[in-house]
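Work package 3, deliverable 3.1, input record:
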Amino acid sequence: MNLVRETNGIKFFDDMSVSLVECMGGDWKVCAAAKVSTDPVAVREMLEAEEREGAYGLIKYLARQRHGSPFEHTVFTFHATVPIVVVREWERHRIASYSEESGRYHKLQPHFYLPPRHRPLIPAPGYKSARPQFVQASDYEYYETIDSLSRTAVAGWMEYEQLMEQNIALEVARMNLPLHTYVSLWCTMNLRSLFNYLSLRTHEPEAMHVSFPMWEIEQAARAIEGIVTEHCPLSIKAWNEAGRIAV
Amino acid sequence: MNLVRETNGIKFFDDMSVSLVECMGGDWKVCAAAKVSTDPVAVREMLEAEEREGAYGLIKYLARQRHGSPFEHTVFTFHATVPIVVVREWERHRIASYSEESGRYHKLQPHFYLPPRHRPLIPAPGYKSARPQFVQASDYEYYETIDSLSRTAVAGWMEYEQLMEQNIALEVARMNLPLHTYVSLWCTMNLRSLFNYLSLRTHEPEAMHVSFPMWEIEQAARAIEGIVTEHCPLSIKAWNEAGRIAV
Amino acid sequence: MNLVRETNGIKFFDDMSVSLVECMGGDWKVCAAAKVSTDPVAVREMLEAEEREGAYGLIKYLARQRHGSPFEHTVFTFHATVPIVVVREWERHRIASYSEESGRYHKLQPHFYLPPRHRPLIPAPGYKSARPQFVQASDYEYYETIDSLSRTAVAGWMEYEQLMEQNIALEVARMNLPLHTYVSLWCTMNLRSLFNYLSLRTHEPEAMHVSFPMWEIEQAARAIEGIVTEHCPLSIKAWNEAGRIAV
Amino acid sequence: MNLVRETNGIKFFDDMSVSLVECMGGDWKVCAAAKVSTDPVAVREMLEAEEREGAYGLIKYLARQRHGSPFEHTVFTFHATVPIVVVREWERHRIASYSEESGRYHKLQPHFYLPPRHRPLIPAPGYKSARPQFVQASDYEYYETIDSLSRTAVAGWMEYEQLMEQNIALEVARMNLPLHTYVSLWCTMNLRSLFNYLSLRTHEPEAMHVSFPMWEIEQAARAIEGIVTEHCPLSIKAWNEAGRIAV
C-alpha cells in the first residue's frame, strides 16, 4: 500500500489493497457447467482434457441471454485492506462469504485512508444526488480535506489507545475510530455475483445501466476486475459486450 | 430515544431504538405452512377460519426437529436507529433485506451513542477473547470512557460540518465520523432467520450454544425478541424450549 | 381448477392454480424504504398517514436505476398447485421460501396435468433449442399427446396404489409417479425477487432481455403477475417501463 | 454406476453417482480465514508457507462455538447422477449453485433407479411419519417393488419416445417420465453449507439433532461426506465432535 503521511506511528495510505487468495474454475468451467444441461459427453471430455479451454461463442450466448447459473461454479477468494466506509458498502452484497478483521477480539492498526490528489471531491455543476458526480478540488480544498481527515484520525486513535490503557473493553474503545480506518477482510464470491458487484461498483458510461459508485469502492472493484479478467478473460469480455449487466 | 448529553446541537443517547414497521404471518402461519406438507384440508381451513390460531405441539415439534422452512413465511420489517458499530454486525446477517440511511446522499444527524452506566466495560477476571465477558467499570473508568467518546464525536462532527461548508463531497466528509454515530435502517427478516440472529446476538446461559455478543447489539436483539414474542408467542416459546438454536 | 378428464377417480386438469395467502407492503412501502436512505421525516409521515400511497416518479427512478433494495420489504406468500415439472423450475429460484406437499409423509392425490388445446406443442419453423418456440399442434398430434400423458398417469397411479397396499414406503412407491403429477406448495418471495422470477418466467417480446420459459411455468408466472399488479400497480408499471429486467 | 437390469436399451441402476469436479481451500483455509479476524501476520504466513496445514484445536473451537464464516471460503463442485426424486430434495438447499441436465433442451437417457436389495422398504414397527424409519422387505415385497418401478419406467420411456417421434416438444414429452429417472447435475457448495446439508441428509444416531432423510439422498450425502473428509479431515472430525450440527 502507498504510504503518504506518518505521524507518531499513525500511518496514512491513499489506496485500496486487493489481492487474490485462491480461485477455482475459469472460462472452461463456465462452458462445462453450461454443457451439463445438454451434453454430458462434452462435460466429461472437458474434465479429462489436459489443457482446459472455454469457447467464446458459448460464453457470449450465456451472458447475453442471462443464463447466470454456469458462472456460479467459478469462485474467487480475495484479501482486501480498505477503509471501513468501503467495507460497509461491500458487505451489502449478500451472495458472498466474508471474514473480517475484528475490533472486538483484536487491537486494530493505526492505519487510515486519505484520498489521493486526483480523487474528485467537488460536486459537479448540475449535481444531482441521484447520480452523484464530482470534479477535481483546488489545492486548497484538497489539503483542507486531508488535513481534516488526518486530525480526526490522530485524535480518534489517541482516544482509542488511552481507553485501552485503562483496560476498557476493545469493543467500546474502538467506537472512537472514524470511518476511514483500514480493516482487512476476505471475500469469497462467485463469478455471477461478481458480475453484479462489478456492475454496481464501477462507473462505465458504456454500460447498459450506468452506476455511480463511491470513488473508493470503485478502486477496489477495478482491482478485482483486473484479477478476474486475468483468470476468466472470455467471461469478462462477454460480460462487457453484453453491457456489464448482472446476469 | 434516551437523551443523555447535549453540546452545541450535538446529541448523545444511550440506547437502541427498534420498532416494528409491519409484519405478516404469526404462529398460525407457521402451523399452516407445516400442514402444506401433509394436510391440504387443514391449510384451507386455517386460511378460512375467522380467528387463526397456531398449535403449540406442532410448533414445538418443528423447532425441536429443526424443520425450519415453515418459520420462513412469517416476516417482520423493523425500523432501527443504532450506532454504526452495531449496524456493522447486524448487516452481516445475509438472509434479510436492508435499507439504510445514506451518508452519500444525505447529511447525517449529529447523534452519537454513549454507553449507559450499567454497560459492563472492564474485562472479567480470567477474560478470554474467545468468550468476551465484562464487569462493571468504576465511576472514574466510566466517565473517562464517555468523555472520550464525547470528545471524538464533537471533534468529528465539526470536521464533517466544516468540510461540508467547503462543498466537499458528503461521501468523503463523512469519513470524519466515528463508529458510534447513529444511523437508521429498515431490516426485513423472516422468523427462521430471526431465530439465527437472536441465537447469535443474545447471551443466554441456558441456550444450547451460548453466544457472547457485543452488549450494544444484544440491546437491539432483545428489543426485536420482544416484538417477535408479541406476534408469535408460541414460536418463541418453542424455540426457547428447543435451546434457542438456529433451526 | 379446470377438470378435463376423469377415469376411476383419477382426475386431469389443464391449468395452474395460484392464489394469494397473504402479503405485506405495497407501492407505499417501496417508497418509504427508498426514503429511509435520505429522508427520515418522510418515512415517519408515510407510516403515520391514514392512507398510504406510493409515488410513481420515485418508483420509476428506482426501477430504472436498479436500486433494488427498496423493493425487498414488500413480500408475498402464494399458494400454488402445479405439476412437478413446473415446481422443479420454480424452486430453482433461491431468494424465496418454500413449503411443499410431501410425498414422503403423505399420500399424494390422483391429480395430473394435461396441456390444454391451445398450448403450442410443435417446434416452430427454424426452431433453435437456445430459444425454444412452438406452434399449434394438429388435432391428431394434440390427442396423441394427451392420451399418452393420460396412459402414463393411470398406469403410474395404479402402481403407486398397489405398492401402498403392500405397505411399501410411500417415499419409494411415489417414484412411480410421472412429472405431470400435481403438488401444492407455498412460496414466499419479495418483490425484488419476484421481478427476477417474472423476468425469467414470462415471454415478453418487448422486454429488454427476452426469455423463453416453458409454457406451463409462464401460466403460473402470469397468475402471480396479476396478483402482484393488483397489490403494487405502480411498481409493476415502473418495472415494465424499465424493460422488465431484474433490478 | 451399478447396472442391475436392462430391457430394450432401457437401463436400471441401483446407486447414486457422486464425484468431485474441483475444490478450493481445505483445513488450512478454515484456519487462515479465522485468523483474518485477529492475526494478520498468521494469515500471511499461512499463505506463504510451502505446505499449508490447519490446526485441529482452532477448527474444533470454531465448530463448537458455531463460528461458521471461516468454513465458507472452502468450496466444492460435485458432479452427481441421481434420480429426480433425490434432485428434488437436494435442490431445496439454497446456499449452493446448481447446473442441471435439461429435459427441455436435450433428450434424457433411458436410465432409471431401482432400490437395491438392502434398501429398507417396510415401515418399522411403531412407525411415525414424523420420524420415518424402515426395515427390510421380504423377497416377495422387494421384487414386487422393483418390478413395479421397472414397468413404470419402460412404459413411460416408450411414451416419451413415441411423442418425440411425432415431433412433440421435448418439454411436454418428458412429463411421461417417472420420478426415478436419472439426471445429472453439478452442485457447488461451501463447507458451511455442506455441514447443514450433511446434518439434514444423513441419519446419525449420535448427532445432536437426529435427522431422518430418505435413504437414497443419504447415499448421495454419504458419498459427499467421503469426498469432503478426504479434503478437510480436521474440519469433518471437529464437526462430528461438535454433534454434526449446522454451524
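Chain A has a mean pLDDT of 96.
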